[in-house]
Every structure is written in C-alpha cells, then in structure tokens.
Amino acid sequence: MIGFARRWVSLLLCGCALAVPLPATTAPLILAPSSLMDGLNAVIEAYRTETGTVVLVSYAGTPTVARQIEAGAPAQLVISADPDWMDYLEQRGLLVADTRINLLTNQLVLVSAADCMPRASGSLLAATLAQWLGPDGQLAMAHPRTVPAGRYGQAALSALGLWEGVAGRLVEVENVRLALKLAARGEVAAALVYRSDAIADPLVHTCYRFAATTHPTIRYPVAAVGRTLEPEVGRLLQFLSSPSARLIWEAHGFELLAGSQSVHLPPVAPRVPGSAHGIAR
Question: Could you tell me which CATH class the domain 2-105+218-256 is placed in?
Fold first, then answer.
C-alpha cells in the first residue's frame, strides 16, 4: 500500500503540492482543489499538532481530483470546489455513504497586480474593468467549461452583462491558482479568483467582489472515499468543521457553512490513549 501511494503521489499533475513529506508509514491522504491550499495546509497542521497524526494532501483542479479518485488514487478524503463533481463521484459509488458534508463557501473577486483604484462597485464595474484591462490587457480565469471557479466566473460576468465583452480576451488555465499567479506576475491585467486566493498572495490587490446573487452558491463538499469509514479518517473529517478549524478557515478567506457541524457521521471509535499515531498498521 505504501509503495502504491508513493507512486500515485509522484504521478499527480504539475501544480499539485504535498502539505508534508510522505512518511515511512501509511498516512491519510486528502485530494483537494488548488484553491484550498493555504487554508487546508493550516488546518491539517493544527490537526497534526493536536493529534500527532500526519496527513498528506495533494492539490489539483477539481476535475483532475475527481478523475484521480475515479482512477483509484489511494485517498481517504476528497474535497471538491463544487457539488457537481462530488455528485459525479457519488453516482459511481466511490464515496462512503453518509459522509458527504457541504463544508465551506467562498467569494469571487477580481484581482490585479497593479493598483486598481478606484475600486469598482455595482454598475461601475464595466467601465473600471475596461480601464484595468486597457486596449490589450487580458483576464485570466480557470476554464469555464470544466473548472468550478471558471463556471462561477462566467455566470457572474454574464449576470452583469460583461461576458461577451471579455470572452475574446480571456486566458483560460487549469486551475484558479494558475490564474492568480499570472495576475501576481503582471502577465495579465487582471484575474478572476476566489477571495481566499487573493488573501494568500500579497502581490495582488482585490479590485472587485462579486455579489453572491450573480452566480451559483459556492460550496466545497467533502466526503470519505471508499466503502467504510476508518476511525482516523472519521476523526479527521470531524476536525475539518470543528470550532478550531473554523477560525483557521476564516483567517484564510473561507466561511464554514451552517450545518456542517450538525451532520451525523457514521460512528467513529474514540482515540485510545497511548495508541500509535496515524493509521499505520
């Protein structure tokens, strides 16, 4: 199992990252969307400090994450940046029954490396977006056909009557973090990303926040992978929506969804004092 997991981790696509080095023993593995990187890394570090359990995380765009699970990646938890891809996995019987939780929400924002004063508001967005982009500037965003952030972005721009005006100036990338990097480096005039991404990079300015009414509700569902819930995985799943995790999520620009703490998971055995950390056998 260890060798299999190591091979899978080594095959994950460019742009993914391990939160911690792969240990000598088996450890829980989470596959998660790139937009969660900073927040989730901080949460699992808090979990390691509290429990002594090492957790591995690999990041990619949500479509890639889902296809890795479908292909048999040895993950214990999966997080998606929208419900549709989690539905995709659930319909294929790849998730542990009754473990799916709508964990987090986020906001869509426009960012730029340049100072974007005056910041846009409401109907002024069209004029100010034109100023930011200039005659030749481009707007980076995740692929709107496949990546959740891109779909949310297209919906928001369409709701404001701006989609047709920018469609020919888009730079579409694999995930939202790549769009953020392009903006931070000044390779594009602006990027459409999540608020959590903007907080993570001090090189960008937040120029505009899209109202939640302009796009479908942003939800990050999480679920256990497989047929049965292992005790350590159940404890980790519960920790993700705990009060201590909430503070970390909020510091990184996320909001814990109401009800995520009230979901009743399958029974999880309590930790035995003095037992070995992790899920090594």
Answer: alpha beta
